[in-house]
Fold:
Amino acid sequence: MRFVEFGAVRPGLDGAQRFERLLDACEQLAVEKGLGQLDAGMNLAREDACRRMIDRGFRPWLQGVTMHRPNEPGYSRPDAYVIDDWR
Structure:
């Protein structure tokens, strides 16, 4: 397995730093398991989390659509630090 199925950190003042630590842990596990590539899903509405992943070298390769009923952002909002793979 080379993808992160789900990961999240508590939002707030230190949310970004907690997310960086989560990414560090995921990348370290990938190295320990000898994986050449690590995939992780991200909704682009999570702007800071998405930018941080791109800054680390993650690249979009699949686009999807999420629909919420009622039409509310749920956990796909700019201050959310969530990794989720919907494949």
